[in-house]
Write the structure tokens for this entry.
Amino acid sequence: MPSILTHPAIPLALGATYGQRYISGRLLLAGIGASLLPDMDALGLRLGIPYGHPLGHRGFSHSILFALLLAVSAAFLYRTLRSSPSAVFAVVFVSCSSHGLLDALTTGGLGVALLSPFSNHRYFLPWRPIAVSPLDARLFFSAWGIRVVRSEILCVWLPCALIGVLGFLIRREPKAK
Ligand SMILES: [Zn+2]
């Protein structure tokens, strides 16, 4: 996986692009949660669920269907999230499904079960520029960790920041003369 700090770059870029009119603070927080939720499956490793199991790490919780189900469920909470149902659906779906796609851009692990539960095949994308983050947090403070942070800044944070800034500039209404 990219590190836990990097998945929220996607909802943050959406928030900067569309602004509070479409994405409330609550929805932005929900998007950040949705971008992190798939990695809860790493807890299964401690419970003895093997990595390659359909419910193992990078299994069902990293699939497109999981993101879809989560987004549909979240859309029912649109009043609580103070945004339209379509905005809630879109932000939660993009945030959650981007997690699996970012993992599929990494250099390590078993790949991502994007089509689970229909197939447990673990996919990588053809281009894998992101150094895989260690599952053991202690290893993050090492040469490996520095490699991870460098690749995540270049491949995720910089593009997301660029999109967010461009989106912010484009959506700003011209001042009345
Ligand atoms: Zn993951």
